Amino acid sequence: MTTGTVEINNESANGAGSARSDGHRVVEVKLGERSYDIVIGRSVLGELGQRFSGLFPAARAVIITDRTVAGFHLASAEESLRAAGVEPHVIIMEPGEKTKSYAGLMAACNGVLDTRLERGDLVIALGGGVIGDLAGFVAGIIRRGMRFIQVPTTLLAQVDSSVGGKTGINTGHGKNLIGLFNQPHLVLADTAVLDTLTPRDFRAGYAEVAKYGLINQPDFFEWLEANWQGIFDGGPEREEAIARSCQAKADVVAADEHEANQRALLNLGHTFGHALEGMAEYDAERIVHGEGVAIGMVLAHEFSARLGLCDPAVTDRVVAHLQTVGLPTHIGAIPGQLPNVDLLMDFIAQDKKVSRGSLTFILTRGLGQSFVEKGVDPAFLRAFLEEKLS
Fold first, then answer.
1. Residues paired with 374 in a beta bridge
2. Active-site residue numbers?
3. Residue 368, by phi and psi: left (phi above 0), alpha (psi -120 to 50) or beta?
4. What is the pTM of this model?
5. Contacts for 233 with CB less than 8 Å, ≥ 6 apart
6. Cα–Cα distance between 238 and 46 in angstroms, integer?
7. What are phi and psi of 37, to 5 degrees?
8. What is the reported pLDDT for 273?
9. Nearest to 272 by CA among 289, 252, 248
10. Please, how many CA atoms are within 13 Å of residue 114, restricted to the half-sphere of its CB?
11. Distance, CA of 221 to CA of 229 (rounded, Å)
12. Short-list 354, 249, 361, 383, CA closest to 300
């Protein structure tokens, strides 16, 4: 079968990673025989073909991307692969969170099967978090497991979703409830492609960067307060922030790959954020994932303060920084009708951290002092949310 394109429409701080002579950074995710590198730097997309053929000689490939990303970066990816003797198949999805659905999964799976690629061939995820989550899930279930490479093209995907092997789709019951752990074999984080993002999408990704400081690296958060403008402007601070974020996640994943314990800390702000995305029916006109995380992190700090765990001044500092970079910090910032408490509580009850019906949240005792709190009182939570919605 010849290769082709199928388009699918559906309704200074401490350093991290090792530096190479070309200035690129490499962070290793240490998982024994399944360890892999995250290569970070400007123009590393041009290394895709060389690295592909070096790691997987004679393998074939299918690129899964979306229509927006294809317009910016597909030609560069194809050119790099062809230079290495690899003629890729291409599947183009619609952009947006709604592609992470049963319909999107079925369309992508059928697209891969149509190529007649085999288990030893590779899926390449070229896109943001939606494409990375979807393509990684597809790779994990096609022929009971194909290999795959992440080429994240958003800041959010580079610092979070492309690393650690979480893949999946959304349902009406909530976000990422159908999926599996499937580690990539390589992550190529080209920081130059971030120049093509809209300001809103870049800001949304920055929420995940700030998250790492708020989890357990207060010195990193302080560095971000002083250096965020360089990150947004594309200076060397951008590579530094991405490398430190990836190193933080790689360390957690290596210690707790399947989220039995400390990996849950990476969900700071996500229980609230996912509920807000769900109530908005994943409508990007209203809220995107990083914005949900930003609001969710503020709510987590406010809830911690309400429980007497955290000084309210810490929340004020978090709010000040997120507002400085242009992120929303309260539920009322979401356009359209506000959710009701019952709907939010329903989504929270479906959160993946719920255990035996008991609510689990990531809370904090101070700046960079997050912890896992099990057995959160639903009545107290409901009263807190009612106040925030009033």
1. 360
2. 144, 166, 208, 249, 259, 263, 267, 270, 274, 289
3. left
4. 0.91
5. none
6. 19
7. -100, 145
8. 96
9. 289
10. 16
11. 14
12. 361
CA 205 to each of CA 63, 159, 215, 317, 365: distance values in angstroms, whole numbers, following the listed order: 23, 8, 16, 19, 25
β-strand pairing of 147-152 with 122-127: parallel
Strand partners, 37: 28
- Whether the CA torsion 36, 37, 43, 46 is positive or negative: it is negative
Query: What is the per-residue DSSP string for 156-190?
Result: HIIIIITSS-EEEEEETTEEEEEEEE---S-EEEE
CA distances from 42 to 109, 169, 235, 246 (A): 32, 30, 11, 16
Q: What are phi and psi of 92, to 5 degrees?
A: -110, 120
Give the pLDDT of residue 15.
Answer: 55
Q: Tokens representing 286?
A: 């209203």
Q: Is 144 exposed, middle or buried (0-12, 13-18, 19+ CB in 10 A)?
A: exposed
Q: In order along the chain (390 residues), what is the average pLDDT of each group of 10 residues?
A: 51 55 86 97 96 96 98 98 98 95 98 97 97 98 97 98 96 91 98 97 98 97 98 97 97 90 92 94 94 98 97 98 98 92 92 80 97 93 94
Cα–Cα distances in angstroms (integers) from residue 300 to residues 99, 258, 329, 372, 384, in the given order: 28, 23, 11, 11, 11
Q: How many CB atoms lie within 10 A of CB 292?
A: 28
Tell me how crowded residue 99 is: count the other CB atoms within 10 A of its CB. 26
At residue 62, what are phi and psi to the nearest 5 degrees?
-130, 130
Match 């049963």 to its residue by tokens: 102
Cα three-residue angle 123-129-131, rounded to 5 degrees: 40
Q: Are strands 174-181 and 166-171 parallel, antiparallel or unpaired?
A: antiparallel
Per-residue pLDDT at 240: 97
Query: Hunting for tokens 């997987």 — which residue is that?
Result: 56
Cβ contact 59:121 at 8 Å: yes
CB 43 within 8 A of CB 264: no
Q: Give the per-residue pLDDT at 356.
A: 75
3-class secondary structure, 11? coil
Q: How far apart are alpha carbons 361 and 304 in whole angstroms?
A: 10
Quote the tokens at residue 17: 């990673």
Alpha helices in 182-311 (DSSP H): 199-216, 218-233, 236-255, 270-279, 289-306
* CA separation for the pair 62, 166 (Å, rounded): 20
d(CA 36, CA 30): 7
> And the tokens for 28?
């290793």
